[in-house]
């Protein structure tokens, strides 16, 4: 795993229905993210926050809320992630809402094609985020990033990488899903996304789930994790705008992160949808930092070196 880290803040809630995710990057910093990563021997450069248009709070137009603003923010994210990867650093995008993953993963996919790496995307989320302007019930673009990355959406978002679509649906593994709109559900099945929903986790356990999600990885794989904090059960992570009961417990989430770390292949990360306005004494941000540490090698168990 790359030990050179770049933190990149994207403080916007432009794609969300609830305001507040724009404060997520600072909440993660206040929770001690940089110090936590440095305690594991990582060289961390905080590149500060990107800038972009403010949230105008307007209703949807032709099925999209704040499309032009979302395009501007995602271009900024794309360019910043591209620069960090070109500099040889592992980028951590601090959101902000999950629409920003369009820019982040478009940049990662471009990088993978340039260096000849395969890409695997782990989408840790309560939602499939596979809506389009036709089937969305809200018009919120944070419910559309996977669809846009797979080529279903407006040209400026689907064409942000060096080819369209930016990624193939077969490269994605969705974990923890438990809230999918009816039209979106049909579209997910048509696209062939591999989804490990909460029923699968309940029936098979997190260990087997992660074994399946990580199957086929090899040293030529770039592993990208897109971590929406609403992946977690609201009982332990209340600071999100879209609470969905029945998510992974603390131990299940820790096991998920530790098994990702065990691959040694993590090469880029999104942390999104943290909403301090809805949190309790920064509890969710501190939990997110704890889990991010586990992605970088912190283990709850004492293990012998192999």
TrEMBL record:
One of its GO terms (molecular function) is arginase activity. Keywords: Arginine metabolism, Hydrolase, Manganese, Metal-binding. Its cofactor is Mn(2+). It comes from the Bacteria. Pathway: Nitrogen metabolism; urea cycle; L-ornithine and urea from L-arginine: step 1/1. Its EC number is 3.5.3.1. This is Arginase. It comes from Uliginosibacterium paludis.
